[in-house]
Amino acid sequence: MSTEDAQDKAGPELARAVLDAARARRQAAAAHRRTKSADGEADQAAAGGAPARRRRRGYSGPGPDPRDPQKFGDVLDRLVKARGWQGPTAEATVFGAWERVVGPDVAKHSRPIKLDNGELTVEAESTAWATQMRLLAASLLQRIAVEVGHDVVRKLHIRGPAAPSWSRGPRRVRGRGPRDTYG
Question: Average pLDDT over the chain, rounded to whole?
């Protein structure tokens, strides 16, 4: 719209003229974009490539969309699967959720020490509990397999509490040592 047209019109007529001019510019720009993108798609098709998909802007709409907010656990599960971390995650579950994996009674009297090549070393709080856990080893392996997954733990090594060592300390005697320690 030129300044001469603006001087001739006033009030509502002027507003209508400005609106029509803006509408015409927008339609011309849209038509230019359409022809430009059609030429680009034709060039890509001629080159053997598929036309580029445009990402829609704004709201995602009523259906599921990758831009929608996601639950943190779901995102973490996808990341673990994509990176191939299922094995280390299952092994960490044995240690992190020991009470849930073996049950509260057994967990109260034992703790996992290390997991190496599918062999789990567990330390019991007493020799009696170590014996009891050796008797329960098959059922413990089944419970671990159900909770964590098969082939994560294939064998259990159960040991009792660590006994005190007399081989080190400030009052160590060389040789066989004193024989009257317990008597």
Answer: 80
The boundaries of the domain holding residue 140 are 82-159
Beta bridge partners of 115: 120
159, 124 in Cβ contact below 8 A? yes
Q: Same domain for 24 and 93?
A: no
Q: Is residue 140 part of a domain?
A: yes
In the chain, the percentage of residues whose pLDDT exceeds 70 is: 74
DSSP letters, 38-97, are HHHHHHHHHHTPPPPPPPPPS---SS--TTS---HHHHHHHHHHHHT-HHHHHHHHHHHT
Q: What is the pLDDT, as a whole number, of residue 44? A: 54
Angle at 42 between CA 41 and CA 43, to 5 degrees: 90
Task: Give the helix/strand (H/E) hosting 19.
Answer: helix 12-47
Please tell me whether residues 91 and 155 are part of one structural domain. yes
**Quick check: is 29 in a domain?**
yes
Number of structural domains (the chain) is 2
**pLDDT > 70? residue 84:** yes
Whether residue 151 has pLDDT greater than 60: yes
